[in-house]
Sequence to fold (398 residues):
Amino acid sequence: MAKRTIVSMPGDGIGKVVLEETIRVLNAAGFEADYVEGDIGWEFWKTEGEPLPQRTLDLIEKHKIALFGAITSKPKDAAFDALSPELKEKGLVYSSPIVGLRQHFGLDICMRPCKSYKGNPLNFIKRGVSDVIEEPMVDAVIFRQNTEGLYGGVEWSNPPEKVYDALMTHPKFVKNFSKTPKEELSVSTRIFTKKATERILRAAFEHAKNYGYKNVTVCEKPNVIRETSGMMYKMAQEIQKADYPNIELWNTNIDAQMMWLTKNPENYGVIVAGNMFGDIVSDGFAGLIGGLGFACSAQFNPDSGIGVFEPTHGSAPKYADYETSIVNPIAMVESACMMLDYINEKDIAAKIRKAVAEVIAEGKVRSYDMMKMTGRPDVVERGAASTQQMADAIIAKL
Ligand code: NAI
Ligand code: MG
Fold:
């Protein structure tokens, strides 16, 4: 079989080191691939005025599969100040290359598994009956609609006349907002389309079926947000009835779900939600399994097959320039395992996950976050594993 080419996009800050260490793990596990580097992030904004250059889009278009570290983003004014002098006159406006990637390739399916590792000192614990301390093993997979909803970008402050007139056709707007001057209104829309809603729901059910999860939970708020959440839940009912009768359909409200996270997180399997609630609930579940050092993700478009695999953490600039990197590479390694599953290299993925599980269960090699230390350059002297040592430990198990 021809060797695969993977686009590697280290990005900024700790994205670089976690991706480099992950590629070492992939090589050690016997995954044969060539890596071509894709430029993305702050450096390219500063020097070219474009954090997501066309050449990177072309590489992804060609090779379909990308591993991505993390990028640095800054607010509008700071972004402008960072531009090199000759670019300042060009009227450039910074926009997130991550959102750019999602929109450009229609990466509408975002998948974020949150599974506890035995022996992880960061696992969630709770007090059960008779005061017994319980450590429920979490195994949830969040499917987040990645391109629409509150992140769709259709919003206004002091909305244009036509928009205002349209809003005035709604009785609730007239009743609740028409006395407020137009200049004092800000509106962010939450648009769901049937097509994208069906795609995320089907992806969730399909995953439940393929990986033996017994339930799919729609986590929205249909009792209040009747149109969008309501549509998602109704479509889920239809899809379940027609095509997945053996999988239970549950329905939770996002607020209650966040409370249940600390009561019975072990009961949830596949969870599906719109963009904002999916973001919230996936961060909530990530907190139960160790937080940012463990939270991995995939985003893909089932039509084109294009997939981008990345940890959910950012570039952690304060640790970026440490002589010895201290951050936990597991979130990136796990994201690479999601890539392997996606391209049907499931055996190698399983092998790597087993190695990670062994390192964690053994408890000899732990990064600073696992030792509940504050991140500082001296954590390695104090017994925490560096990024490289953690990768070495995983490789040793392989
Ligand atoms: P962050 O995720 O970079 O870091 C927050 C804190 O989490 C860090 O200070 C560190 O204590 C911890 N942390 C993160 N990754 C870790 C790891 N692998 N191991 C151990 N601890 C880890 O988020 P922050 O500080 O809000 O943002 C920093 C920059 O990253 C910003 O410019 C932001 O825009 C960008 N960002 C990029 C993302 C991406 O590329 N997907 C996502 C989130 C933020
Ligand atoms: Mg988030």
